[in-house]
Write a structure and sequence with these properties.
heterodimer; A: about 100 residues; mainly alpha; two-stranded antiparallel sheet; 4 helices; about 80% helix; about 5% strand; flat; B: about 260 residues; alpha+beta; Four Helix Bundle (Hemerythrin (Met), subunit A); 2 domains; five-stranded antiparallel beta sheet; 9 helices; about 65% helix; elongated
Chain lengths: ~100, ~260
């Protein structure tokens, strides 16, 4: 990979992160009505958009800046797999319990 | 057949099956566990927010200030903080990039800018904390039952409590047993449920402490770069390792930004 090529890629990732953040901020300020009234699996379309955009940003930071996408496949698995299993598991339990807690007052 | 033989020998010792140095691997494993810690914090925040949904303040309405400007500008200051941290992540990548090419001057320039970015971020966070702690001019009423209410624009017998308008005798009863509070701390929070303030201080404080220790480590590495330690060693891997930590701090902020300020 030539010198200019790799610095250009760094700046491309920077612009992607910047644009995604700008979209999040604009949505956060204006909060379009249709995104608040539509739901995807119990979450408003607006919040779902925030979550998806955040995960895309995380992918670029970990993959490009932290260089994980250029590591050996097994190392990628060691780092990503525990998080992909444990975090959704924890959140599922906590948020399910929380809505139950709300139901009993 | 031959490939499996090679793979078995790969794990027999003396080789690096993950093609990464010990230090880098340990940094990765530390960051992975740290990510789990932060997800537990944000998960606990989500739990309490669901449980106290009616009394939970909306972050947009709490953090509306911008330095040197009067008026309400929700999101803008925190967006600026996010931009500063992303920017310092880019300068960090560039420092690592110049380290790979053994370009000492490049590393000094970009690592120096990363430190400046980190310090600006810490200053911004201190500013935001101070505003949150001091609160608004009007303050709020803390009812005997622990609920928070605000006077409706200038009136003395109409109050807004958890999104419901209360007036007349009910309001007077509430006011007579309530006490005035301003700002937020670990016990009271004029914006809503006290747990919101607790989580705000705890999560952004824990992240801010990561940024702070990141800046300290970066300064140590910066001094080593200046003294030519890595030039003599023949590689700038130390810059790469602290870079991993720094990007992780940025990554955590991306999630804090979403789940504290946006959702």
């Amino acid at each position: 990979m030539s010198e200019n090529n790799s610095t250009r890629q760094i700046w491309i990732v920077f612009w992607i992160l910047l644009v995604l953040t700008a979209i999040e901020v604009l949505l956060g300020i204006f909060k379009p009505e249709f995104m608040l009234s539509n739901y995807i699996i119990g979450v408003t379309l607006l919040n779902m958009t925030f979550i998806v955009l955040t995960i895309i940003k995380a992918y670029y930071i970990v993959g490009a800046f932290m260089h994980l996408s250029h590591e050996v496949r097994l190392l990628k698995l060691f780092i990503v797999a525990p998080m992909c299993v444990l975090i959704p598991y924890l959140l599922f339990i906590l948020l399910t319990e929380a809505s139950f807690h709300g139901a009993i007052g | 057949m031959q490939t499996t033989e090679i793979q078995e020998k790969m794990w027999d010792g003396g080789k690096k099956p993950l093609i990464a140095s010990y230090g880098k691997l340990m940094m990765w494993f530390f960051l992975m566990t740290d990510a789990l810690t932060f997800s537990a914090f944000l998960g606990a925040y989500g739990f309490q927010r669901f449980v106290h949904a009616d009394a939970w303040p909306i972050a947009d309405e709490v953090f509306t200030h911008f330095p040197f400007v009067h008026g309400e500008y929700p999101m803008l200051f925190v967006a600026l903080m996010t931009f500063i941290l992303i920017m310092s992540s880019v300068t960090m990548v560039l420092a690592v990039h110049h380290g790979h090419r053994m370009n000492k001057k490049g590393v000094i320039l970009w690592l120096g800018l990363t430190i400046v970015g980190g310090i600006i971020f810490l200053g911004s966070q201190a500013w935001e904390w101070s505003h949150f702690i001091h609160g608004t001019y009007e303050g709020a009423l803390l009812g005997a039952d622990g609920s928070i209410a605000h006077f409706v624009n200038g009136s003395v017998d109409e109050i807004m409590r958890h999104g419901k308008l209360i007036s007349g005798q009910d309001a007077l009863d509430f006011i007579s047993s309530a006490k005035e509070i301003t700002g937020a701390n670990l016990i009271n929070n004029e914006y809503g449920h006290p747990l919101f303030a607790d989580f705000f201080f705890f999560i952004t404080g824990f992240h801010g402490f990561h940024v702070f220790s990141g800046v300290v480590i970066l300064i140590i590495i910066f001094i080593n770069v200046l003294r030519g330690t890595y030039e003599k060693r023949g590689h700038y891997e130390m810059v790469e390792k602290v870079g991993l930590y720094w990007h992780f701090v940025d990554l955590v902020w991306v999630f804090v930004f979403t789940f504290f300020y946006l959702v």
